[in-house]
Design a protein that fits this description.
The protein is an alpha/beta fold. It is built from twelve helices and seven strands. The chain folds into three domains: 1-45, no CATH class; 46-253, Rossmann fold; 265-321, no CATH class. It has helices at residues 3-14, 18-30, 35-42, 62-75, 99-102, 129-139, 177-183, 202-215, 237-254, 256-283, 285-299, 305-321, and strands at 50-56, 80-86, 112-118, 144-148, 165-170, 191-194, 225-228. A seven-stranded parallel beta sheet has the order 3-2-4-1-5-6-7, with helices on both faces. Helix 5 (99-102) links the parallel strand 2 (80-86) and strand 3. Helix 10 crosses helix 11.
Length: 325
């Protein structure tokens, strides 16, 4: 991709061209040549959108909830971007990418952009490119960005590093309520969403959450609200969007919102540094050779693992100092 092409795509993204948005996200997701230059051009224009993360166990109705939330925000006249992170097949490397099927009613609405992305083996429920995609949507003028995570249970805590407000979705009757509380999944919530609230057991579920909150230590973030919804009927959705707004306002008053956004940038940087080192060690010929030789020396007990790690980091730093990617 030529510099002129990069500039052209970036300009179209900033103008809100959905075709350019789709192409930009694809380039970033694939790590195509010029993708970094594209992000560099877009990044200064991001940072204005509300990013809402939606997480919870499989079967909690997250996709239906996201669909209903998008409709609610659209009633307010706000443009909505949806990033649905789908699990990657361990056999084919492909993703399920089913969310676009479930959200077809928005397909003809130019104010809604839906993108399914594969985890590609990334732990924590979020793909590396999800943050890049959020930047693109942000710069393109989408006021609200909804990120729906894979839904792999207790490992879903990474969403707190990517969103301004995290919705943890629970439903009665799945049998994992107590386990979720113990796992710490609920501790990341800014709003607890009790979906499928027309089912038996909803009162017990809410009671468990309130008990957990009463026993929990003080959090830096404001105490979360609990909202009941029936997403299939859009019941409670307006209450939920109001709770999101209240949570953000409380964070601003407490002075934690800005700190959280800064921490989000820090974690993103840490992830990128980690990824670059791992890619160098696994895919670059020199990096792979350094890793194998050093691992062999550890195996022979010639050096300890910590010294080995220092040597690998030193070799990577020397490579980066020469301007190598």
């Amino acid at each position: 991709m030529t510099p002129q092409t990069t500039v052209g795509i970036a300009a179209r993204v900033l103008a809100g061209d959905v075709g350019a948005v789709a192409r930009a996200i694809s380039l970033l997701e694939d790590g195509a040549p010029g993708a970094r230059s594209l992000l560099k051009a877009i990044h200064p224009h991001a940072g204005r959108s509300l990013i809402v993360g939606v997480t919870g166990a499989p079967g909690a109705g997250k996709s239906t909830l996201v669909d209903a939330l998008a409709a609610s925000y659209r009633k307010e006249g706000r443009r909505v971007g949806i990033i649905a992170v789908d699990p990657t097949s361990a056999f084919s490397g492909g993703a399920v990418l089913g969310d676009r099927i479930r959200m077809q009613r928005h397909s003809s609405d130019p104010g809604v952009f839906i993108r399914s992305m594969a985890t590609r083996g990334h732990f924590g429920g979020l793909s590396r490119a999800a943050s890049d995609a959020a930047d693109v949507l942000d710069a393109a003028g989408f006021e609200v960005i909804l990120i729906e995570t894979v839904g792999v249970g207790q490992d879903e805590v990474e969403i707190v590093r990517a969103a301004d407000c995290v919705l943890v979705v629970l439903v009665p009757g799945l049998g994992d309520d107590v386990q979720a509380i113990k796992a710490g999944l609920l501790e990341i919530a800014d709003v607890y969403v009790l979906n499928k609230a027309d089912r038996d057991g909803i009162d017990r579920l809410e009671s468990e959450i309130r008990t957990m909150l009463s026993l929990s230590e003080e959090r830096e973030r404001p105490r979360p609200e609990i909202v009941r919804t029936v997403a299939t009927e859009a019941t409670g959705i307006d209450t939920l969007t109001a709770a999101v707004g209240s949570s953000l306002a409380a964070s601003e008053r407490a002075g934690t919102a800005s700190a959280r956004r800064r921490e989000r940038s820090r974690w993103r940087l840490v992830d990128l540094v980690r990824e670059r080192i791992l890619l160098w060690a696994a895919n670059d010929a020199e990096g792979e050779r350094t890793l194998e030789v050093t691992a062999d020396r550890v195996f022979r007990r010639e050096i300890d693992p910590y010294e080995a790690a220092d040597r690998i980091l030193g070799a990577f730093a020397a490579r980066a100092g020469k301007g190598a990617p």
